[in-house]
Amino acid sequence: MNGNILVIGGTGTTGRTLVEILHNADVDFKVMVRSQEKADELNKKGVNPILGELGDWPSVKKALKNVDSVFLLSSPSFTKVAEQNGLIDLAKEEGVRKIVKLSAVIADSGSKIHLADWHGLIEDHLKSSGLDYINLRAHSFMQNMLMLHSITIKNDNRIYESMGDTKIPMIDTRDVAQASYECLTRDDLNNETYTITGPNPISYGDVAESLSKATNRKIEYVRISPEDHNKGLKNAGVPGWLADDLTIMSREWAISPKHEPTSDFNRISSKKQFDINDFAKDYANYFN
Fold first, then answer.
1. 51, 50, 48, 107: which is closest to 80 by C-alpha?
2. Domain of residue 225, residue span
């Protein structure tokens, strides 16, 4: 890999860690941000920001100047496909060589799940673009618990979920960031789709046990119906379409008692992965 990297989506949970890894490795990169406030925060850390926003194509064109490779991550929305596919098209016009897209394990164009359909459509467009590419499909993030379960853990010492005792190989976003770094800075991984998972399949009962040890209090996993799960998400302020997507995903995962991890992370990186005990220990304060 030669030349400058543009990071799109560098201020969220995964992106912040990726930016830190790139910065510590002294890689030539910049981060596209939508506000001057975010730009100022990055400047204070010695990171080069540039103002721009997907959909505001003149600003994106400016951000793409002299860029060799792009990391592509944006929030889920009904404009996601148009925005990410628009970025891919403009990047090709501006001479970008490679795009690493952070996708999802469920990616599948035509799926009834919005998130799966959107990721699938963008993956297909990227693969057919003629650019070097990597589609990096990540499994469910351990850090999603900070958004979806921290309040009930703090207030009730309980995790409410509708997946029964199914075990899935959740992944720590720090491992997602490490894999993204490897994909951005190496070309031997190009033109492939990788599915990265955590090291072990775990149930929400396992999550409750690890968090109980880390927080030094008893946290209970309460098995609820998909209908109650959906209602709880919406009552917590999750947009209706996203609550429906998450409920369907949980229902479909629950069909199988165990979903095995893949070996793709180890194909990409030699780093030891974070497991659920590491996550619980490192994030215990978020649940107290």
1. 107
2. 144-167+199-260+274-287
